[in-house]
């Protein structure tokens, strides 16, 4: 009997250790594949978040907009209130700004997550003008080359337009603050209410500052005019599709420009090669297909006339 039991045990052990067993875990490989894919997606998501945080000046981020890549409309889409939709923004974390249309401040970086989550909508409301053509201002820097250039530009506006830039009084709630920036020149569009920035790098010239001041007065770029096709041609193929929106037109009713003609000498016109993705080629040409040079003036006569008409004040009233 003992021999039989030993034989059975020996046989069982032999079978156990020598049989090519296939346990029922057929779902394991698929499960692992799903886990790896999920992990990969999480890694990509975290990496993208880190890029937004660590490389803000290099990121152009898509936000919600009704426009599609296949949209062939020549106009910037607007809502029922006349606010312009924004397709893309440049994120400047250090300067706490969201930039669209090349140089217009459209939001605060601190509220970026609210825009992404849909709690806020990035739009540019119809620009508001400054009451009585008076613009209170402060200059953050009280000395240095940038301070001098800002002062000269303000003096130029006071001497050549019907506007009055006045040092801010403590009673002034709405005012412009000229402050130093790390790169380029940026401004809000029209009077925003409260303090609004014009951010200027040390490289900004009087022409650059005048351009940003006109934005703060409520003026968009010249190539956005509704009648621009009579004068210029946009070379869409030479422009990144993500930037097309800032080259589209705006209805004349939303811009205080329609009473004057298109001007190649306006300080608000983009250079002929602005944002071109093709080296040594144009993004905008004349109706005859030629490039053009932008003005070296601070304001030309048409720029001054537009300010006069928009603000409807006698030139430098006594």
Instruction: Estimate the mean pLDDT confidence.
Output: 78
Query: What form results from the Cα inertia axes?
Result: globular
Helical fraction equals 25-40%
Question: Do you know the CATH architecture of the domain at 132-216?
Answer: 3-Layer(aba) Sandwich
| CATH topology-level name of the domain at 132-216 | Collagenase (Catalytic Domain)
Descriptive notes:
- This protein has 318 residues and is an alpha/beta fold.
- Among the domains are: 49 residues, no CATH class; 85 residues, 3-Layer(aba) Sandwich (Collagenase (Catalytic Domain)); 78 residues, Collagenase (Catalytic Domain), CATH 3.40.390.10.
- The protein contains six helices and 13 strands.
- The strands form four sheets. The chain has a five-stranded mixed β-sheet with strand order 8-7-9-11-10, with helices on one face. A four-stranded antiparallel β-sheet has the order 1-3-4-5, with no helix packed on it. A two-stranded antiparallel ribbon has the order 2-6.
- The C terminus is likely disordered.
Short structural description:
This protein is of the alpha/beta class and 318 residues long.
Task: Set down the secondary structure blueprint.
Elements: H1 2-18, H2 28-54, E1 60-62, E2 84-85, E3 88-92, E4 97-100, E5 104-108, H3 112-116, E6 123-124, E7 134-139, H4 145-160, E8 164-167, E9 175-180, E10 185-187, E11 195-200, H5 206-217, E12 232-234, E13 284-286, H6 301-311
Helix pairs in contact: 4-5
């Amino acid at each position: 009997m003992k021999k039989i039991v030993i034989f059975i045990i020996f046989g069982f052990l032999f079978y156990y250790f020598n049989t090519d067993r296939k346990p029922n875990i057929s779902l394991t490989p698929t499960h692992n594949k799903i886990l790896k894919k999920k992990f990969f997606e999480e890694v990509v998501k975290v990496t993208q978040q880190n890029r937004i945080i660590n490389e803000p000046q290099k990121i152009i981020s898509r936000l919600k907009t009704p426009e599609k890549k296949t949209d062939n409309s020549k106009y910037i889409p607007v809502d029922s209130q006349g606010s312009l939709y924004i397709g893309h923004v440049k994120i400047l974390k250090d300067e706490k700004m969201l930039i669209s249309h090349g140089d217009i401040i459209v939001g605060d970086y601190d509220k970026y997550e609210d825009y992404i989550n849909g709690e806020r909508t990035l739009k540019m409301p119809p620009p508001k003008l400054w009451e009585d053509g008076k613009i209170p201002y402060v200059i953050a820097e009280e000395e240095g080359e940038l301070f001098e250039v800002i002062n000269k530009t303000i003096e130029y506006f006071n001497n050549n337009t019907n506007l009055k830039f006045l040092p801010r009084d403590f009673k002034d709630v709405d005012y412009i603050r000229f402050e130093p920036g790390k790169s380029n020149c940026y401004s809000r569009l029209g009077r925003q209410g409260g303090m609004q920035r014009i951010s200027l790098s040390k490289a900004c010239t009087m022409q650059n500052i005048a351009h940003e001041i006109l934005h703060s007065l409520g003026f968009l770029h010249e190539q956005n005019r509704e009648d621009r096709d009579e004068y210029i041609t946009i070379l869409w193929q030479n422009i990144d599709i993500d930037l097309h929106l800032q080259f589209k037109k705006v209805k004349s009713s939303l811009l205080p420009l329609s009473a004057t003609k298109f001007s190649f000498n306006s300080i608000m016109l983009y250079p002929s090669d602005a944002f071109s993705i093709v080296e040594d080629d144009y993004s905008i040409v004349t109706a005859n297909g030629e490039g053009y040079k932008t003005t070296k003036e601070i304001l030309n006569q048409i720029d001054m006339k537009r300010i006069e008409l928009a603000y409807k004040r006698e030139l430098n009233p006594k």
